[in-house]
Write a structure and sequence with these properties.
single chain; 13 helices; four-stranded antiparallel sheet; alpha+beta; five-stranded antiparallel sheet; globular; 14% strand; 55% helix; 2 domains
Length: 475
């Protein structure tokens, strides 16, 4: 144990004294302070989201590169410079050496991560405290009221941890039949008609791509979403409805204000024991929303039915007859506040810590039996395979040829052994006020660290023990 502590302390002390540690610390502090200032956004909550999203993302990238470089460099450098010969000549096992260096590298990473996280949090709190105080300087009372309401809104929408419930997935058969029927009606208005073979082909294509197609709401029509398995004990809690409508096309370009109206179906039990749902409009009439951005509405209490469902409906009242589109991936969704921003922030830091433990272990595993350039190449290639496999298996990836299907099958097979770093990126959840579930953190730790990382660590330690130290001597 004394040898282990000595190796950890020596690794940590040498790294802290090096110029690389100081450079990394400087880069991290620049990311925290410069990035939020360099991005031009208007609203205070957007500034806070930028501080969280881009700053933490940049911190994650820098620490990822640091973990890979340090692990490969420290393990291979000791062998190439004969320093390891002085250690293994003493009664110290190579397992102790490997674990000590891995622990020392992680201590460095955690120190850098904590310093960066504290700086990001301080920047976020500064943005939060100054929210709403830049206007109405002539009227201090009005300025205080504006600042208070602005801070309450930021606390309820951004600086919070909210659990999300997604609506029930569309039935492919019904959705395809409805889309084909609508297409036939449009063609009939133009005096055209498709043969039955084309209609069958169109129906099959829509069924296969139903998860990728946005929901379309024509002008003057309505669409209903059903949320299932919502706990009834949340009936006394104010649920938040979050949605992002698009106008004309699913794109951030050419968006404008459009009119719509949202309603929720309230359960009601009559005096005779009858149970029914009746629509309750969330506004007195159609209201204008700027499309292409997220909006939130607070639902009244008591909207959850006996079977744990919530029914929400929207109607399109666009004055120019434009179509509304809703992507399946980003809404609408129900949000329920669960914990404070600080607790959710700590969960995000925990995910980043697990990622750094995993990356440094991979770097040490490959660096223990390969030269530094080869070790870096192997680790980066392994991680790139994981990233590319995630892209190929994504639902938005269209399959056209047999080679596409073969590539997707190979990507799914690779995902059984590789580690996609995309799953460790929780900055979107944190900046959007979405809860980072402990179940998700546990899944990351068990699925990637224990089941895939630890076997690679053990394999690297085994090869490190079998490596001949004399083979590194230069002639």
């Amino acid at each position: 144990m004394k040898a282990f502590r000595a190796i950890v302390a020596l690794t940590f002390r040498n790294a802290v004294r090096s110029h690389i540690f100081q450079l990394l610390l400087l880069l991290l502090l620049l990311c925290v302070t410069v990035i939020p200032v360099s991005v031009s956004v208007g609203k205070p909550e957007d500034l806070i989201r930028v501080s969280l999203l881009y700053s933490l993302w940049a911190v994650s990238i820098i620490l990822t590169l640091s973990s890979l470089w340090l692990g490969c460099y420290i393990m291979s450098h000791d062998i190439d410079t004969y320093q390891i010969h002085m250690v293994v000549s003493k009664p110290v096992s190579r397992i102790t050496v490997w674990l000590g260096k891995w622990t020392g590298i992680n201590m460095i990473n955690i120190v850098l991560l904590l310093l960066s996280a504290l700086a990001v949090y301080a920047m976020v709190m500064f943005r939060y405290q100054s929210a709403g105080e830049e206007g109405a300087l002539a009227d201090r009372q009005l300025a205080r009221e504006n600042a208070k309401s602005e801070k309450e809104r930021i606390r309820s929408q951004v600086l919070v941890g909210r659990r999300s419930y997604l609506p029930k997935a569309r039935d492919p058969e019904r959705a395809a039949e409805f889309a084909v029927r609508r297409r036939v009606m449009e063609l009939q208005k133009e005096g055209k008609q498709l043969p039955d073979s084309e209609l069958i082909k169109m129906r099959d294509e829509i069924k296969s791509q139903i998860d990728k197609l946005p929901i379309e709401v024509q002008s003057g029509e309505a669409y209903r979403w059903i949320f299932e398995n919502v706990p009834q004990e949340l009936n006394d809690t104010s649920l938040i409805l979050r949605y992002r409508p698009y106008l004309g096309k699913v794109s951030s370009e050419d968006q404008r204000e459009s009119s719509m109206q949202w309603a929720v179906f309230m359960p009601h039990t009559g005096q005779d024991g009858s149970y029914a749902l009746y629509p309750f409009a969330l506004t007195n009439g159609p209201e204008s929303h700027f499309t292409g951005v997220f909006h939130e509405k607070e639902l009244p209490k008591g909207v959850i039915t006996k079977d744990g469902t919530v029914l929400v409906e929207t109607a399109n009242f666009d004055r120019m007859g434009g179509k509304h589109y809703y992507q399946t991936a980003d809404g609408p969704k129900l949000l329920i506040p669960v914990c404070s921003f600080e607790m959710n922030y700590l969960r995000a830091i925990l995910v980043m810590t697990i990622q750094l433990l995993l990356l440094s272990g991979l770097a040490c595993a490959f660096g223990g039996f390969l030269t530094m350039p080869t070790a870096v190449f192997m680790v980066v290639s392994y991680l790139l395979f994981g990233a590319l496999s995630m892209v190929l298996t994504d639902s938005s990836f269209f399959l056209e040829s047999a080679w596409d299907h073969a590539g997707q099958f190979l990507a799914k097979a690779l995902l059984l052994i590789v580690i996609p770093l995309q799953h460790f990126d929780v900055t979107d959840l944190l900046s959007g006020g979405d809860l980072i579930e402990f179940s998700y953190i546990g899944e990351l730790f068990f699925k990637y660290f224990l089941l895939r990382g630890v076997p690679l660590f053990l394999f690297g330690i085994w090869l490190y023990r079998r490596r001949e130290m004399g083979a590194a001597v230069r002639k």
